[in-house]
Amino acid sequence: MNFHREPNTYVEQVNLKVRNLERALKFYQEVIGFKVLEQTKKTANLTTDGKTVLLSIEQQDNVVPMLGKTTGLYHFALLLPTRSDLARIVQHFTDIGLRFGSSDHLVSEALYLSDPDGNGIEIYRDRAPLEWEWNNGEVEMAVDPLNFRDLLSDVNQQQAWNGLPAGTVMGHIHLHVSELRKTEDFYTKGLGFEVVNRYGTQALFISTGKYHHHIGLNTWNGVGAPTPPENSIGLKSFALIYPNETVRDHVLANLKNIGASVTEENGAFATADPSGNRILLKA
């Protein structure tokens, strides 16, 4: 099953604020492997397939550095089509001398790094859903060491890395939030997601269609963490895609019923979670 298309609701695009567009573009093209779809003096839309924008970066005026211990982006996560694609990007990172983290989450194998502005990035591949373990409605996930020897046995050493493959999608987003009770209500009763894993009292993982998670939510920056300044480097917004306008209209009504603010901008709808993370609602 493809968890990033209709009838599921999923994250399609992440929009970031950066200090220097030229520096950010060099990183996202040469290190991560994006292609530029559109560019202005202060913005760039990045793609892998030449038509779908997965990441938008914007150079802010009067920008301030990313502050610690606030709400906002923990990381956005790029989902690769195959394990061989993950092996190839590991080889690429090794070839350019890039340091990165890694983990085996049981449902997936993942790499972790940050862009030059400190925005967190995960690059991962999913194990087959039939391999995921579910207990009492929750999917089992872990933070185990990644077996690089086994992973790299899956790479063709003669095949050169050529950037992110066209089938790459925005797999999920993981956010710092200020608390979890109201946040859970917002994302489940408002936006229509289902909790699929609870990491103690510190994190929630939510999805539609029984994916292991389309969104992660944590309080690791502290309960009561403040919203960062508007001109801070970091997350500007992210876009959720609903199956159709009927479903989205139902979500808009649910958001209003729970007291969440919804605005309309040029035919698009936007809201923000209780921690100030801005969300665009599309169909």
From TrEMBL:
One function term, GO molecular function aspect: metal ion binding
Keyword Metal-binding part of the UniProt annotation: yes
A Pfam family: Glyoxalase
Limits of the VOC domain: 10-126, 169-283
InterPro entries the record matches: Glyas_Bleomycin-R_OHBP_Dase (IPR029068), Glyas_Fos-R_dOase_dom (IPR004360), Glyoxalase_1_CS (IPR018146), VOC_core (IPR037523)
Keywords: Metal-binding
Protein name (Swiss-Prot/TrEMBL): Glyoxalase
Species per Swiss-Prot/TrEMBL record: Paenibacillus foliorum
Lineage, broadest ranks: Bacteria, Bacillati, Bacillota, Bacilli, Bacillales
